[in-house]
Structures are given as structure tokens and as C-alpha cells.
Design goal:
Layout lengths: L18 H5 L13 H7 L21 E7 L7 H6 L12 H5 L9 E6 L5 E4 H4 L6 E8 L4 E11 H8 L7 E6 L19 E5 H4 L5 E6 L2 E2 L9 E3 L12 E7 L6 H5 L23 E4 L7 E2 L7 H4 L13
Parallel strand pairs: 1-4, 2-11, 5-12
Antiparallel strand pairs: 2-3, 4-5, 5-8, 6-7, 6-11, 8-9, 8-10, 12-13
């Protein structure tokens, strides 16, 4: 008899809560003003801001079949959870700033510059890079380096399908992705908290891994601006700062790129940024996490965010305490 062992991300359709129930969950718990650290971060969830959400009915719907192979065995966060509590410093450093200010961002027309060690360089539209007839929904865990987490129903395509279209040269070892730098529409850029534009990168084997996802939608609709519209990447086994938003450039290179947070604070934000409960952040532990909209670190952090069976082999030769 063959016994099938379910992978960590797999969940039968019968066990997936319908989207209508997600949306009708109770409103977020509002926390006391004196909360600090990760507790304070979680407490900000759900604070009402006039005009925070673009009306969902005004967002184009995206047809995408759920891929049952990639369904985290966790309750999915509500649309409101995901779209009102964001790290997107180009719109401000408070978690509510992106939802408050990102409406000014113009996402059409949009082009992505592809260059470096690649066979088909040039300027591409999102539609050139992403096959919208092949969209799929994947329910992925998201873990932030600040020790909070969510579960998100993203819509997109494997990043490998985008990379294959532009034909990187065999000597390319990394792909670098750059976020839009448009101060007239992104008020956070006026504050030099980071060296703009925001740059992140992956090794080619990481970028080509089946889990790495190029995202164009969320909850059945196109992405909201505060979530990285019109094109972002999601790497579910890494801390969230690796997942670049509003991407305007893909550059292929044989040298490890210099990435924004690693340049800003190299002792806190490593190039790899793999979720690792055994390597504490210099200012807080990483072995426990808050699952928003909760208030407390009541979950054990999983190595590689629970995707170790699929990605651990890529790092077998590395000391993950040094290559954090």
C-alpha cells in the first residue's frame, strides 16, 4: 500500500475555509496604547483610517485556479488584515501609512527594465512578463523579520516562468529586482531612512525554485498599491523584506548584488534572510512569532517558515548562522 505524506503547504479543498467566511471574521482587536516591541506592532492592526481600502468592486477581478499543491495549512488572514498592515517604507514607516498614502501611485502604464546577463534585454510590460492565462492562486505563509506573520492568498505565476522568457545567460548567478523610485507619488522617499531605490536579489537557484512567486493579485483581484502593485515577488521561506514590491527592473549578474537592508544594517539583515528561529535578530528573538491579528508571540517559528523540505537542500553547504 502506498501512503502519501502530505507536504507542509498542502491542504484538501474540503478543509479550506471559504473566502466569504474570511471576510466576515470579527474586526481586529485594538490593543492598549502602551504595548511595545512586536506586541505594539500587532496592536496597530485594524486601526481605522478613512479611505484606507480601495473599494474592492472597483478592482479588476483575476481569474485564477487555486493550486492545491501550495496551500498553507493555516487559516488565511482576512483581506483587511493583509491590506491595512504593511511594510512599504516608500509610503511611510508606520504600518498604516501604505494603505493611507499608496492610492496616489499610478500603476499604468508600467514597464520593467530587464538587463544585465540576459539574452532578451529590454523594456517589458507586466503582460509581457506574466502569462495572465496561466495565473494560479497560492496560499502562502508570510513571515516578517519583526516577528509577525500572516497567511495570504496570492495570485501570480512562478518566477521561473518570467525568468525563462528573458533567457538569462548560463553565467548569471543572481537576479536583482528594483522597486519604483517616484518621490512625487511615494511620500516616504523624502525621508532618508534607507538608500533609495529599494533593491533586493536572489541567487538563481532560489529565483527558479518552484515556491518563488511573481504576484499580480490578491483575494481574486489585482493587487492594491500598498501590497506592491502591479508586480511583486514573494519568497515564502524568507523574511518579508526580501520580497520586493512594485518592481521596475530585473538585472541578471554573476556577482552578489548589494541589497538595501543588508547595506543599511548588515549585522541585522543578511543577504539570505531565511526564516531561522535559531538565529536571533540583534534586538529580539526569532524563535516565536505573532500571527496577526493576534497580540502575543504564541507560535513557534518554523525553520524556513515551514518550507524546509522544499528549500533546505539549497543551503546544505552554508553555515546559516553566518549566512543569515
Amino acid at each position: 500500500m502506498i501512503v502519501k505524506h502530505r507536504k507542509p503547504w498542502e491542504l484538501p479543498y474540503s478543509e479550506i475555509t471559504p473566502e466569504s467566511i474570511y471576510r466576515s471574521r470579527r474586526d481586529f482587536i485594538k490593543a492598549a496604547a502602551g504595548a511595545v516591541g512586536a506586541l505594539a506592532g500587532a496592536a496597530c492592526v485594524g486601526q481605522e483610517t478613512p479611505g484606507v481600502l480601495q473599494a474592492q468592486t472597483n478592482l479588476p477581478a483575476l481569474g485564477a485556479a487555486r493550486n492545491a499543491k501550495y496551500v498553507a495549512a493555516d487559516a488565511v488572514n482576512s483581506y483587511k488584515d493583509i491590506t491595512t498592515y504593511n511594510n512599504y517604507y516608500e509610503f511611510g514607516t508606520e504600518k498604516s501609512d501604505p494603505a493611507r498614502y499608496a492610492g496616489s501611485l499610478k500603476t499604468t502604464p508600467w514597464t520593467v527594465q530587464v538587463d544585465g546577463m540576459v539574452g532578451k534585454p529590454g523594456k517589458y510590460s507586466v503582460e509581457d512578463l506574466v502569462d495572465f492565462k496561466a495565473l494560479e492562486e497560492r496560499i502562502y505563509r508570510h513571515r516578517c523579520v519583526e516577528a509577525w506573520s500572516m497567511v495570504m492568498p496570492f495570485i501570480g505565476v512562478p518566477m521561473s516562468s518570467v525568468i525563462n522568457k528573458v533567457q538569462p545567460q548560463p553565467s548569471a548567478k543572481f537576479v536583482e529586482f528594483t522597486t519604483l523610485n517616484r518621490p512625487s507619488e511615494m511620500p516616504g522617499l523624502s525621508v532618508p531612512v534607507l538608500d533609495w531605490p529599494y533593491v533586493e536579489a536572489l541567487r538563481m537557484d532560489e529565483a527558479m525554485n518552484e515556491l518563488t512567486f511573481m504576484v499580480v493579485g490578491l483575494y481574486g483581484h489585482v493587487l492594491l498599491n500598498q501590497c506592491g502593485a502591479p508586480l511583486r515577488v514573494h519568497i515564502p521561506w524568507k523574511y518579508g523584506f526580501k520580497s520586493g514590491k512594485s518592481i521596475v527592473r530585473l538585472r541578471f549578474t554573476d556577482k552578489q548584488p548589494r541589497t538595501t537592508w543588508n547595506l543599511s544594517a548588515p549585522d541585522e539583515y543578511g543577504f539570505y534572510a531565511n526564516v531561522n528561529p535559531n538565529v536571533p535578530h540583534p534586538r529580539w528573538a526569532q524563535n516565536r512569532e505573532v500571527r496577526l491579528p493576534g497580540l502575543f508571540k504564541n507560535r513557534d517559528t518554523q525553520m524556513f517558515n515551514g518550507y524546509g523540505d522544499q528549500v533546505a537542500s539549497m543551503y546544505s553547504s552554508l553555515d546559516l548562522k553566518k549566512n543569515y
